[in-house]
């Protein structure tokens, strides 16, 4: 149970003054925590950090206030000049003065009552906003702040600027955050004294206050001691929870999985290629793990197209040889089916009995699969989240393989683990995450890497093309189709909604249809499963030659003879995603091309991203560049969360803290594995604050 000390922070944000259901919905858009499954709470709000400040410390006299500058003026109200009756297009003006001159405070569509009340004639007021000089006359249109001189404490001279979303005003958000901050109870320090001293960290609540009420623009920099303190807290919470998960997983003893090698040999003989050295090495590492009595917890990292699927298949074959069952889980239905299509025929060669299980299998078919898994008639199952469901029972799950891990959370990892008696785990990711990120996302997993591509792969030519030259591109596509090639066309990434995404894809489909007719296919997230399959099948078998797709195609989809990928509005995609998408081609022996179609003018970061894509195909280099480029202001005004599931930490800025946090976590748990000491108790608070409480539940269970 959550310590009651934290209760004031764990209230829904709607219990804050000025936050109704509508505002709450808007605030939820900018809350950095992943709260998709629940309502935002006050403790989510405290981690919405400002990305910059408005400096209002410039307090000149009227005559000396420069045009365009943000200033704070102390003035006396002279007179009000409402617009003539019936003419709302003329603004309401309030004239005010100081020793040096007069200024017009200008309001359009004003609420006269409110203006009279907040600026009575003769009153001394403080106003802050942007100066405008026109024909030698100063004015300030809609001052950001107005306060009576005696009352000006509330006027922030260094005003934090938060990420905003349409419809949510900075004032409303600031007020809500302010209330959340007031709810922070007196908390014991959970940091190690030495670490805190060495890093000059302020206390937790102190750090938050400094960031939300900055005294200086430097205070809100991610480099500041306050921000770093919170980043460290978050890393520490993450490392501790990963370590606890790992300890639980390890505590349950595994068993040695040893086989006679016959099934593996049968599969290897059926492969139309020989394994790369990396694949062979990875398999040897996996095999060694499987043979040990401890459980395997291994990450298989390999760039797109490096051939992870076959490694997974051979590992699963080993588990079956040893008398157990194996499951492969994919993040999407398309992927699950594609894996199944690859794996089933090869597995059949070794006499393995396979099945597929997604949300779509229904009725008889589903019942048969469930029965087969429970009785052990099925050796190997490929599926989606559906495999986590309670109705799914295995006779003896010995190995669980999870593809594209970052889409699954820790609890889902645990859920599948619970389906067997301490099954071994192999986690596969195509994101060539830099070392620092492996640590944050996976903790201390063992890592195998596929560092080479299968032989015979041709480099992918990457070109950038402005959208104005679309006609030229379509001409070239026509030639390519006549030449028998296959083309992916990826539709622009749109934040707004699934609806808009759909529109983008359907519009493009409609505009290309007259040119390409029946050679054109379409697949998107809103399609029914069967229709998606059909679209993929038609493309794979060459009935369609051009596949318009939303980013459902992003991970793992494999059509080896597709040779061209066009990415529309490439400037809207992140580097990692562009790299993933590009990896859809260049999988066969033919030369491939990636066309990055962009809309001018390009921002600096977008320009840099596209040129990185032209320069290199090396996933590791790309991910390092990605880290460098991220967080560079381009997100301003939109959701500005930290990196990869972090609320406040920014890997690119705070990576140096990560290893310290890991060591700290290790030492702590070595001394106090159940978090029973005084510091342990404090650490529990930390875990709750950063939403890592599932780890606390493990403590109980274990
Ligand atoms: P990823 O690592 O992206 O999941 P896949 O497992 O989908 O890659 O493999 C990409 C393609 O490479 C598939 O078409 C697969 O059949 C092929 N492949 C895998 N291993 C080899 C190999 N050693 N030699 C040649 N082709 C291979
Ligand atoms: Mg894959």
From TrEMBL:
CDD domains: DEXHc_RecG, RecG_wedge_OBF. It holds the Pfam family RecG_dom3_C. The keyword Transmembrane helix does not apply. GO terms for molecular function: ATP binding; DNA binding; DNA helicase activity; hydrolase activity. GO terms for biological process: DNA repair. InterPro entries: DEAD/DEAH_box_helicase_dom, Helicase_ATP-bd, Helicase_C-like, NA-bd_OB-fold, P-loop_NTPase, RecG/Mfd, RecG_dom3_C, RecG_wedge. Residues 289-450 form the Helicase ATP-binding domain. Residues 469-628 form the Helicase C-terminal domain. The keyword Acetylation does not apply. Keywords: ATP-binding, DNA damage, DNA repair, DNA-binding, Helicase, Hydrolase, Nucleotide-binding. This is Probable DNA 3'-5' helicase RecG. The gene is recG.
């Amino acid at each position: 149970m959550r310590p009651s000390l934290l209760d004031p922070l764990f209230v829904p944000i709607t219990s804050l003054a000025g936050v109704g259901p509508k505002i709450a919905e808007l605030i939820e858009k900018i809350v950095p925590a992943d709260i998709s499954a629940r309502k935002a709470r006050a403790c989510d709000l405290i981690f919405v950090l400002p990305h910059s400040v408005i400096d209002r410390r410039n307090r000149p006299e009227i005559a000396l206030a420069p045009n365009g500058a943000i200033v704070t003026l102390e003035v006396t109200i002279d007179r009000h000049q409402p617009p003539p009756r019936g003419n709302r297009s003329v603004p309401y003006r309030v004239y005010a003065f100081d020793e040096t001159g007069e200024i017009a405070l200008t309001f359009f569509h004003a609420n006269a009552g409110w203006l009279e009340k907040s600026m009575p004639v003769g009153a001394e007021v403080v106003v802050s906003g942007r100066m405008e000089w026109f024909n030698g006359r100063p004015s300030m249109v809609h001052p950001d702040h107005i306060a009576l001189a005696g009352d000006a404490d509330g006027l922030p001279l260094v005003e934090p600027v938060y990420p905003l979303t349409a419809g949510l005003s900075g004032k409303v958000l600031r007020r809500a955050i302010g209330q959340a901050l007031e709810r922070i109870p007196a908390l014991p320090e959970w940091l190690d004294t030495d670490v805190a001293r060495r890093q000059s960290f302020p206390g937790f609540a102190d750090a938050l206050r400094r960031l939300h009420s900055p005294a200086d623009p430097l205070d809100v920099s991610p480099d500041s001691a306050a921000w770093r303190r919170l980043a460290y807290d978050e890393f520490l919470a993450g490392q501790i929870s990963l370590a606890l998960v790992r300890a639980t997983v390890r505590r349950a003893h595994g068993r040695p999985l040893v086989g006679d090698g016959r099934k593996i040999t049968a599969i290897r003989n059926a492969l139309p290629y020989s394994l790369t050295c990396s694949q062979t090495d990875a398999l040897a590492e996996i095999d060694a793990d499987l043979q040990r009595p401890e459980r395997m917890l291994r990450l298989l990292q390999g760039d797109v197209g490096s051939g992870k699927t076959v490694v997974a298949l051979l590992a699963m074959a080993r588990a079956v040889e040893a008398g157990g069952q194996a499951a492969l889980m994919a993040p999407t239905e398309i992927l699950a089916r594609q894996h199944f299509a690859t794996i089933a025929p090869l597995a059949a060669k070794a006499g393995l009995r396979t099945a597929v299980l997604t949300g779509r299998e229904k009725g008889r078919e589903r019942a048969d699969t469930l029965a087969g898994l429970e009785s052990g008639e099925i050796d190997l199952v490929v599926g989606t989240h559906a495999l986590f469901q309670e109705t799914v029972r295995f006779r003896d799950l010995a190995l669980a393989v999870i593809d594209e891990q970052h889409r699954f959370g820790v609890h889902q990892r645990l859920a599948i683990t619970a389906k067997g008696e301490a099954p071994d785990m192999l986690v596969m990711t195509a994101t060539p995450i830099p070392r620092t990120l492996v640590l944050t996302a996976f903790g201390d997993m063992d890592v195998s890497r596929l560092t080479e591509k299968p032989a015979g792969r041709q480099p992918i030519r990457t070109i950038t093309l402005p959208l104005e030259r679309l006609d030229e591109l379509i001409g070239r596509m026509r030639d390519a189709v006549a030449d028998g090639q296959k083309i992916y066309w990826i539709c622009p990434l749109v934040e707004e909604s699934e609806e808009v995404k759909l529109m983008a894809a359907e519009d493009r489909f409609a505009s290309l249809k007259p040119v390409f007719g029946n050679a054109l296919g379409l697949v998107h997230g809103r399609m029914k499963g069967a229709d998606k399959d059909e679209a993929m099948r038609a493309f794979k078998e060459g009935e369609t030659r051009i596949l318009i797709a939303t980013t459902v195609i992003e991970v793992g989809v494999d059509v080896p003879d597709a040779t061209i990928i066009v990415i529309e509005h490439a400037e809207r995609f992140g580097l990692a995603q562009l790299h993933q998408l590009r990896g859809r081609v260049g999988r066969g022996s033919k030369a491939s091309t990636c066309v990055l179609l962009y809309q001018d003018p390009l921002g600096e970061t977008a320009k840099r991203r596209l040129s990185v894509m032209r320069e290199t195909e090396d996933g590791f280099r790309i991910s390092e560049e990605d880290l460098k480029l991220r967080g560079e202001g381009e997100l301003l005004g939109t959701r500005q969360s930290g990196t990869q599931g972090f609320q406040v930490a920014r890997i690119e800025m705070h990576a140096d803290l990560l290893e310290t946090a890991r060591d700290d976590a290790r030492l702590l748990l070595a001394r106090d594995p159940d978090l029973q000491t005084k510091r342990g108790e404090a650490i529990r608070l930390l875990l709750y604050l950063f939403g890592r409480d599932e780890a606390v539940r493990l403590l109980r269970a274990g």
